[in-house]
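Private note to self, pasted from the team thread so I don't lose it. C-alpha cells:
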C-alpha cells in the first residue's frame, strides 16, 4: 500500500507540474519567467495561506519556518540558471541535463535518509529518468555546439540540475517538521519573494491584476496541487519514488503539449513514453 500511494502522489505531482509547464509556456514568452513566477506565486501563496489557517500553531517552530522560507528563496536560483542556459544555448542541450535533477534527490535520500529501494525499483527509477532525458535531447543541437564553452549552456544546466535536486531533497526536512501544507506555503512564498526581488532589481513594470487572469490562476492552482502532492508524498510515503516521479515532468509536458496543441508525437517521444510507463509499472512492484 505504501508503494502504491507513493506512486499515486508522485504521479499526481508530476501531472500537476506538467500542466503548469504547458500553461506557463505562452505566459513566459509574453511576460518573461520572473513575471510569471512572481504573479503565479501570489496566487499560490494566497491559496496555501488560507488552507494553512487551521495549522497556524505550526508556525511557532521558527527555525524550520525560516529554513523553509530560505529554501524557497534559494529555489529560485536553479530557475534563473535554467532560464539563462536557454538564453545562451539550445533546449536540446540544457533540458536533458536539467532532467537529471531527480536522480540527485533520490541518491541523497537513499544514502542520508536510508530511503529503502530494491534493485528492481532502482532499475525502474533509471528508466524514468532516462526517458525524461531522452525526450529532451536534440542531436542536432549537440553537434552544433562546443560543449566545453560557456555558450554551450552546460554550466547553467548543471547548476539548475544540482539546484533542483538539492531543493527537493532538503524540502523533506521542513516538511517532516511543519507538515506538508505549511512547508508548501513557505517554500512557494520564498520563491515568490525571490521573483519579486528579481523584478524590483530589474526595474520591471508589473501588472498585478494579471495574477487574476485565467492562465495565471490556472498555473498557480496546478503548482499548488503539485507541491502539496509532493510534500504529502515525502511526508508519509516513500521519498525516492515520490521524488523521481514528481520531477519527471519533461515527458509528461511533451505529451500534454501534443494533446492540447495538436502536435504529432515523434517516434522518439512514443518510445520514451513506453519506457516511462514501464518504469512506473516496475517501481510499483513491492
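Design output:
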Amino acid at each position: 500500500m505504501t508503494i502504491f500511494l507513493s506512486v499515486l502522489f508522485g504521479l499526481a505531482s508530476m501531472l500537476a507540474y506538467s500542466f503548469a509547464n504547458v500553461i506557463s509556456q505562452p505566459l513566459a514568452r509574453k511576460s518573461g519567467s520572473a513575471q510569471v513566477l512572481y504573479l503565479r506565486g501570489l496566487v499560490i501563496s494566497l491559496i496555501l495561506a488560507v488552507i494553512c489557517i487551521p495549522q497556524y500553531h505550526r508556525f511557532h517552530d521558527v527555525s524550520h519556518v525560516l529554513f523553509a522560507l530560505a529554501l524557497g528563496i534559494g529555489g529560485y536560483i536553479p530557475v534563473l540558471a535554467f532560464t539563462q542556459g536557454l538564453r545562451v544555448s539550445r533546449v536540446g542541450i540544457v533540458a536533458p541535463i536539467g532532467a537529471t535533477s531527480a536522480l540527485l534527490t533520490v541518491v541523497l535520500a537513499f544514502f542520508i535518509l536510508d530511503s529503502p529501494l530494491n534493485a528492481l525499483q532502482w532499475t525502474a527509477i533509471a528508466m524514468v529518468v532516462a526517458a525524461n532525458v531522452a525526450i529532451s535531447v536534440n542531436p542536432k543541437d549537440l553537434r552544433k555546439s562546443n560543449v566545453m564553452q560557456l555558450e554551450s549552456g552546460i554550466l547553467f544546466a548543471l547548476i539548475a540540475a544540482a539546484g533542483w535536486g538539492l531543493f527537493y531533497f532538503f524540502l523533506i526536512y521542513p516538511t517532516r517538521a511543519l507538515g506538508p501544507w505549511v512547508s508548501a506555503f513557505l517554500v512557494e512564498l520564498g520563491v515568490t519573494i525571490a521573483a519579486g526581488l528579481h523584478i524590483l532589481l530589474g526595474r520591471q513594470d508589473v501588472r498585478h491584476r494579471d495574477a487574476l487572469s485565467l492562465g495565471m490562476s490556472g498555473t498557480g492552482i496546478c503548482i499548488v496541487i503539485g507541491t502539496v502532492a509532493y510534500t504529502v508524498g515525502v511526508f508519509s510515503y516513500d521519498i525516492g519514488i515520490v521524488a523521481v516521479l514528481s520531477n519527471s515532468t519533461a515527458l509528461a509536458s511533451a505529451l500534454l503539449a501534443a494533446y492540447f496543441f495538436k502536435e504529432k508525437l515523434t517516434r522518439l517521444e512514443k518510445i520514451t513514453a513506453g519506457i516511462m510507463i514501464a518504469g512506473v509499472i516496475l517501481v510499483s512492484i513491492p
